[in-house]
Amino acid sequence: MQSRHTVRSFDEDLKYLASRIAAMGGHAERMVDQAVLALVDADSRLARKVIEDDEFLDEGQRDIDEKSIVFIAKRQPMADDLREIIGAIRISSDLERVGDLGKNIAKRVGAVSDVRHPFSLFRGLQSFADLALTQLKDVLDAYASRSVDRLGFIRDRDDQIDAMYTSLFRELLTYMMEDPRNITPCTHLLFCAKNIERIGDHATNIAETVYYVATGEQMPPDRPKEDKSHRVTVSVEPAN
């Protein structure tokens, strides 16, 4: 819960940053959701819309950076207030990157639309994106309420995202080995899957920032940070 200040305009400054973060968060969620939908449906028009929509997040990050510098110079905030401003800067940076990752998925729609893969593969990517977006939505809700009760659980849930990414990595690698014609589209889908995995990482970063803003302390460092895709191998049958 944010405290009220004697200078009423300072409260308005902090509310402005919070509202800008909320708008960026909702926009980033929509971009990723639409990018994955465009990928699944081979919808090039929707993909172009996602790419164009990224400008909103770029402009939002610039605005928060500029306003925060002015607020710090003018108000000289301390303690809770300074954490609020620094937190907004950090979260806006993570959300801008989430938008970039959604845009990168949209850019690959054309490369995979000509070769349709089994429905289960696209369903897996969509489920993967839903898990990452749930993670993002939960941390943005925590930021809005300044509630830290579930932040540890939300951060630790990143393990599930890493495990699903490793499973998709293995499945895509198998498709490549079965038919060389799958190599190009599956490579693009691997990049899409990695982008979704990175969205989970940015959501985890936001969870840690929210915890710091609300408590003034860092979350415990025992965060799971790596997927297991580097351990995946596929056996190749020797040629006769």
Offer a concise description of the structure:
With 240 residues, the protein is an all-alpha fold. The chain contains eight helices and no strands.
Structure description:
The chain is mostly helical. The chain has one domain: Up-down Bundle (Methane Monooxygenase Hydroxylase, Chain G, domain 1). The protein has helices at residues 8-41, 44-75, 79-107, 109-112, 119-145, 151-156, 158-178, 183-215. Helix 1 runs antiparallel to helix 5 and helix 3 (79-107) runs antiparallel to helix 8 (183-215). The longest helix has 34 residues, at 8-41. It is elongated. The N and C termini lie far apart (70 Å). The mean pLDDT is 88.
Write the layout of secondary structure elements.
Elements: H1 8-41, H2 44-75, H3 79-107, H4 109-112, H5 119-145, H6 151-156, H7 158-178, H8 183-215
Helix pairs in contact: 1-2, 1-3, 1-5, 2-3, 3-8, 5-7, 5-8, 7-8
* Oligomer status: single chain
Measure the end-to-end span.
Answer: 70 Å
CATH topology: Methane Monooxygenase Hydroxylase, Chain G, domain 1
Helix content: over 70%
Number of strands: 0
Which geometry do the CA atoms define?
A: elongated
Q: List the total number of helices.
A: 8
- Structural classification: mainly alpha
- What is Rg? 20 Å
Q: Architecture in CATH?
A: Up-down Bundle
Spell the H/E element sequence: HHHHHHHH
The biggest beta sheet reads: none
From the structure above, extract its key features.
240 residues; mainly alpha
